[in-house]
Amino acid sequence: MSVKSLETLETWKKAKEFALCVYREVLPLLPSQEKWNLNQQLRRSANSVPANIAEGYGRLSYQDNIRFCYNARGSLEETLSHLVMCYELKYVPKPLSDSLEQDGEKLTQLINGYIGYLKRSKHGQTKPGANYSVHEDIGPYEIDLSEFPKDESRFPDS
């Protein structure tokens, strides 16, 4: 894969545009005391959206691609949460906040549509190793509570 082929993917292009908008329009508005906190969290989560879409696109199996799209969608939700904080802390004006919220909702729909497409098309299903999966036998997880001293002040009713 190459950046040239990635640029044909509308979902990635829109995710990249969204991240660039956050970088150009929101990050400069944050005060210096947020340089190592909200600024960094917002920067990482916004950049993670197109990065995860790109990583999934480069995988051999559609299952991997879908998993990375789920990660991208999660990063988008994290970014939107940070943007709500930016607005509520009065770092960004309402029109910008509303615009980014609408763009985020559209991007979520686009990612969901892409996931649906991948599930239907099963692109990469015939690639070597696509039909192998790892399964873990899940056993019971038991803890012997008698090994722990009981602190009556913390749990008076038990």
Which short descriptors sum up this protein?
5 helices, single chain, mainly alpha, 158 residues
**Low-confidence parts:** none
Terminal residue distance? 59 Å
Q: What is the N-to-C succession of helices and strands? A: HHHHH
Strand content: under 5%
Gyration radius, in Å: 21 Å
Assign an overall shape.
flat
Largest sheet: none
Number of DSSP-assigned strands: 0
User: Structural class of the helices, strands and pairings?
Assistant: mainly alpha
The percent of residues in helical segments reads 55-70%
Count up the helices. 5
Describe the structure.
The protein is 61% helix and 0% strand. The chain has helices spanning 3-6, 10-26, 38-57, 62-88, 94-121. The mean pLDDT is 86. With 158 residues, the protein is an all-alpha fold. It is built from five helices and no strands. The radius of gyration is 21 Å and the shape is flat.
SSE topology sketch:
Elements: H1 3-6, H2 10-26, H3 38-57, H4 62-88, H5 94-121
Helix pairs in contact: 2-3, 2-5, 3-4, 4-5
What's the short story on this structure?
The protein has 158 residues and is mainly α. It is flat. The chain has helices spanning 3-6, 10-26, 38-57, 62-88, 94-121.
